[in-house]
C-alpha cells in the first residue's frame, strides 16, 4: 500500500526505522508498531479540511503543504487529489495541477469539478484544444454551469472561433443574467471582429450589472479614444485606471483576453500625455 510505503520511507529518512544486520538468535528483535490505516485516513481527511480552510483565507502555500500530506495519507480520495490540484492551480504550478487532477479523474471520472479544473489548467498552459475537451466533458454532465460556459467561451476565443465563443458566453448569461464577465467578454470578441459600437454596448451593459468594475470602463475609454473622442475617453478611462492600477499593465490585459486590436488601441491611449501623467503616479 502507498500509505505504508511512504511512511516507512519517511521513518528511514529520519533514522527512526533501521534494518538490522543479522545477529545472534538470542538478540532482541525490534518491535514495530502496526499502522492503523483507518486512523491515518481520518488524519488525512482532517488535513484536507484544514487545507480547504486555509485556501479560503488565501494562505495557499500552507494549504498546499497540508493537501500534499493528505494525498499521501488518503491516496484513494478523488476529493483530496482534486483539492491538491486546485491549490497547485492557485500557485500557478500547472503541470503539478494537471498531474493531481488527473489522479482525481482516474478515481472519479464523472466529477465535474475535476473536469472543469483540468480545463482551466490546460487553458493556463495554452493547451486550448485540451481545455475545450475537458470543459465540454464536464458540461455534458452539468450543462447549466455559467462559470464553465464562460471558461469554454474564453477557450474558443483563444482558438479564434469567435462565433462559437460568443455562443458560450450567451448561454452563460442566459443561465445567470448577472454574470457580467460573459457580457464583458462578448464585447472583447466583438471588438476583434471590428464591431466597435456593439462592443461598446456590451461593456455599457456590463457596467449596468457591475457599475464598479474598471475593466469595461477602460475598454469603453479605449474604444472612444480610437474613435477620436478624446474627452470622453479621458473622462472614463482615467478613473478606471485609478480604481485598479493592474489595468495599467499590458500583460495583465492580455491575460484577461484583451485581443490584438484592443491592445493596440490601448497602447495608443496609454501614450496620450494626460494618461501618461496618470500612469506615472500609479
Automatic annotation (TrEMBL):
Keywords: Repeat, TPR repeat
Gene3D superfamilies in the record: Tetratricopeptide repeat domain (1.25.40.10)
Signal peptide: none
Residue stretches of each TPR repeat: 78-111, 112-145, 146-179
Ranges for domain Cytochrome c-type biogenesis protein H TPR: 45-171
Amino-acid biosynthesis keyword on record: no
Alphabetized InterPro entries for the sequence: TPR-like_helical_dom_sf, TPR_CcmH_CycH, TPR_rpt, Ycf3/AcsC/BcsC/TPR_MFPF
Classification via PROSITE patterns: TPR, TPR_REGION
Short name of one Pfam family: TPR_CcmH_CycH
Name of this protein: Tetratricopeptide repeat protein
